[in-house]
Amino acid sequence: MAIGFGAASIGVISRASTRWLILFVFNIAIPIMLFYRIATIQFPREIAWSFLLGYYASVLVAYVLGMCFARFLFQRSLAEQSIYGLGAGFSNTVLLGIPLLVSAFGQEAMVPVFLIIAFHSATLLPVSIFLIQMGRGSDGSRSEASIAKIMIEVLANPIIGGIVLGLASNLTGFTLPGPVDTAGNLMATVAIPSALVALGASLAGYKLEGQIGPASVLAGIKLLVQPVVAWILLVKILGLGAPWAPVAVVMAGMPSGAMVYLFGARYGAAPEVAASVVVISSAASVVTLSVLLALMGA
Prior knowledge:
The chain has helices at residues 2-9, 15-40, 50-73, 78-89, 93-105, 110-135, 140-155, 158-171, 178-203, 212-237, 244-252, 258-267, 271-295. By secondary structure, the protein is mostly helical. It has one domain (2-295): Na+/H+ antiporter like fold (Up-down Bundle), CATH 1.20.1530. The protein starts with a helix and ends with a helix.
């Protein structure tokens, strides 16, 4: 991350190059890595599906808290409240979550990671779009059309495609041909460092343009409140162990994903806050994630 940030800051990597690097990571490297890892992984005999309930309950708590602060403390509109909620609850699951969790917990982390990713955008993005449309007084048909459109985009996402194809290959017992296996292993090795460099380079393009107070509040919810709630639900209440609980708790403590800013800019709803929370939470997560990883036995 530091290499990517430094290279972009001094102009070694241009903004255009950063965009192409991110496209390579999202559309090629990560999907192939997910396909290869899932296709060749040995699934556990029992999958603790309750960990998804605990994880997304913590997401809901963070999302609602973000909206409440936007409504009662900062007097924001419903459309902007949804962006606040997204900033407080939407984790950086791909560029940071995948490389960090796989490095920290090993290949056994792949199953809970890909299950979280499979539902992440499919749940949070349609909800946010609906709230934005509601806040702007759109009629129901338009809201339904927007939700249907985003669902199609989610299903057409290369990352989701990599997960689905890898799962199909694994469950059918299909053996990857030698060249495909070799290429997949090489790409899986490249994907993790490429994702981290891309994340660092993209952060160099964000600017802290005011709204530090609201963004700091959202970053606090994202990095501190959400993982604590996830830990209480997953460990204390559901009693889950490794790899399910550690992966979900650390994923809950990931910084806000770039999608928060993209949504804010796309819909013109609190884009400055969205950009600031991505920067602040990413910078602060160097400390918070280190502590969280140590506590969860990485």
